[in-house]
């Protein structure tokens, strides 16, 4: 097999003063931070669909990037294998240890699902061969149950029993391939699990059926030896007007209502958080405090656009606060998957590498600064001080569940009027963040 990315060297760490376009400035995989190396803190993954498939097409124009990788015709098994070759060469040159996939990212979908499954068997055998002698692994797999017209009304939430069965078949096969490739997780992204109007929708019926499909997936996955986490990836809208996995809190409530919370965690995407009118940090915090922080789709959106732009992360404020949450939670069970795509005018092979260098360096710098924020201690000290009234007296009794409503009322009546709470000191804390981020 000939080299695909011929003019691009192996990407090494050279430090922040380097001007080499093909070098990491902050991502030093062996650097130890808070007891673990960077590559342990940041298990980066390549998204098969964007990196090897997205060619710059948008709703207004044809693709700009050539992602044939030497295959004579796209949408063939020859092309599917060329993408495997390109993907493994790409990951090796960047030192990326994981990849993520949808079923139809790996192979072109046939008219007959039996033929699609045969193709998946063939390509997964080819991927296994490429994995030999490397430390590259599968982070997670999933099934694409949103692109094909059969899923226009959802997959688990569909009004067609036949489509529901087809969705189940896709999930089964995607789980088979995920286990075959040693995947650490399996994701449900409910891109069409929602509604356009309540005039034609039975919400309770649809959510019950989604839960049924997920329960079947868990039972089957465990029966074939899958020991990893299942994930829900929250997103509020697009393509549906309202999606049932609107945000982390909504998805967690759904999992608990239907008894799925022991097997599922969240796969949080930064761009989906902002579409839900939350910060990336918020979605990570909500997941973590509920014991459901699992994995991350690492990207960012454009605040001036109202859709999922899937840009490579460059905002160090966001990655610092994200890594602050991840460090505080003790890390992820999954990893950091770059569900990100090059901008349409960035169409060369070099641009693919520049994008990953940007994303990996941005999260590495966020990790460095998040650790410094924690070690600095001023934020933690202030939060402890802010809630100190609950450490003794009536506050401690509230926390210890040793007081009732009447006793609290009597306390308030004797007090007549409380003092104002301790100041929130938001501006001071923001200055602390700036001080840590920009100190020499």
Automatic annotation (TrEMBL):
SUPFAM superfamilies: Xylose isomerase-like (SSF51658)
Cofactor binding note from Swiss-Prot or TrEMBL: Binds 2 magnesium ions per subunit.
Keyword field: Carbohydrate metabolism, Cytoplasm, Isomerase, Magnesium, Metal-binding, Xylose metabolism
Residues involved in Mg(2+) 2 binding: 269, 272, 308, 310
GO annotation terms (biological process): D-xylose metabolic process
Cellular localisation: Cytoplasm
Active site: 102, 105
Name this polypeptide is given: Xylose isomerase
Lineage start: Bacteria, Bacillati, Bacillota, Clostridia, Lachnospirales
